[in-house]
Amino acid sequence: MTKWEYITVPVLVHATKQILDNMGQDGWELVQMVPGMNPESLVAYLKRPLES
Q1: Which of 13, 15, 44, 46 allows an S-S link to 28, with CB 3.0 to 4.6 Å?
Q2: 33-49 per-position pLDDT tens digit
Q3: DSSP state of 50
Q4: Would the pLDDT of 4 be above 80?
Q5: In contact, 2 and 43? CB cutoff 8 Å
Q6: What does the buried/exposed string (b/e) look like for 16-38 if buried means 16 or more CB atoms within 10 Å of the residue's CB?
Q7: Which residue from 17, 6, 12, 18 is spatially nearest to 36, judged by alpha carbons?
Q8: Could you tell me the pTM of the whole model?
Q9: What is the dihedral of CA 32, 34, 36, 41, to 10 degrees?
């Protein structure tokens, strides 16, 4: 069975693609994005397989 690790990342609206591309290069997969504390920010929930 695959085990996962998770991370939450604050994302600025004007840099969404760059931030998510960087996280993807590190093996993170976006699960969900929700509004942040202000209109210019989001919070990304990401996961990747846990290395044994």
Answers
A1: 46
A2: 999 999 899 999 999 99
A3: P
A4: yes
A5: no
A6: eeeebeebeeeebeeeeeeeeee
A7: 12
A8: 0.88
A9: 70
